[in-house]
Design brief:
InterPro entries: Patched_domain-protein. This protein has 10 helices and 5 strands. It has 294 residues and is an alpha+beta fold. Strands 1, 2, 3, 4 and 5 form a 5-stranded antiparallel beta sheet that branches. α8 packs across α9. It is elongated, with a radius of gyration of 34 Å. The C terminus is likely disordered.
């Protein structure tokens, strides 16, 4: 009560209140605190929330398509919009990295084991063919009838028919296979003993520390990209127990992870509590009592 109101109260004068204060205090507050009004408002909010979640999950893909991440009506947006509408059946290629530096690519048994694991990615509902330098290399050597396990001790220091010599000087030097240079990472140096002209000599040479291959993805849309991502990651995790560290990535995976987290983030208790506190601060005591039950 201000100074003017105190004086008026001492002299028994009536202090008129604004009609808006009277309306909220006498009428609107009683309506809001009425049980049936609260029940009706709660039911309407539940219907609204259920409808919003249903549309978000089954009909809307806002923020989860690549086209939503670029400026509207830009060249990229126009292209991605057409791509997502007509070419999603055959989409991008996922990259799989073999990061174990201890893999012995010279061992024919190890190479067959790697190829067997890689080709397993072709037999799923979301993948088609792999693009793997090792697969092309094995076919290339078979066509040339070259046995990589044979060594010629009298030619080029025992390296004429070894795996690394053939890989670098023949396979990667061929025009249509040069692109695979980007899929191989060489490290230096590995020591090994070789017999050169009947003498035992210790040589140092580079070796493959990591490599990668690609698998073509198909039938992946926003409604099933999460299931595809988890399936492929599970396969990579299983084969990692055999071949060592393996990693897989595709441009659609961040969108799938966003799809997995969007509802859990919204309904996380701490986040929901923050939303209700914000409503309480913004709407005042009566709305705060209604929404937050405080």
């Amino acid at each position: 009560m201000n100074y003017r109101s105190e004086i008026c109260a001492k002299n028994n004068y009536h202090v008129p209140q604004p009609w808006l204060n009277i309306f909220f205090e006498k009428q609107f507050s009683k309506f809001i605190l009425n049980f049936w009004a609260q029940t009706a408002a709660g039911l309407l909010y539940a219907v609204y929330l259920g409808g919003a979640v249903f549309c978000l999950v089954f009909y809307m893909d806002v923020g989860l398509q690549v086209s939503n991440l670029v400026p509207y009506r830009s060249v990229s947006h126009s292209y991605l919009n057409v791509y997502e509408n007509f070419f999603t059946k055959c989409s991008t290629s996922a990259e799989i990295i073999l990061a174990n530096p201890n893999i012995d690519y010279e061992d024919n048994i190890v190479r067959r084991r790697i190829l067997s694991a890689a080709k397993a990615f072709e037999f799923t509902n979301f993948t088609y063919k792999i693009d793997f330098w090792l697969q092309e290399f094995e076919e290339f050597t078979r066509n040339l009838n070259s046995n990589l396990d044979d060594q010629d001790d009298n030619y080029n220091g025992g390296y004429s028919k070894t795996f690394y010599h053939f890989l670098n000087n023949v396979f990667l030097a061929t025009g249509r296979f040069r692109k695979y240079k980007e899929d191989l990472n060489f490290a230096c140096c590995k020591k090994e003993k070789r017999k050169i002209y009947s003498n035992n000599t210790t040589l140092q040479r580079s070796y493959i520390s990591s490599s990668r291959f690609y698998v073509q993805l198909i039938n992946m849309g926003y409604e099933n990209r999460s299931a595809a991502m988890h399936m492929l990651k599970d396969m990579v995790e299983n084969y990692s127990q055999i071949l060592g560290d393996m990693y897989i990535y595709d441009v659609s995976f961040p969108l799938a992870e966003q799809h997995d987290n969007i509802l859990s983030v919204f309904f996380r208790p701490k986040k929901l509590d923050d939303y209700l506190k914000c409503i309480y601060r913004k709407t005042g005591r009566f709305f705060g009592d209604f929404f937050c039950h405080q």
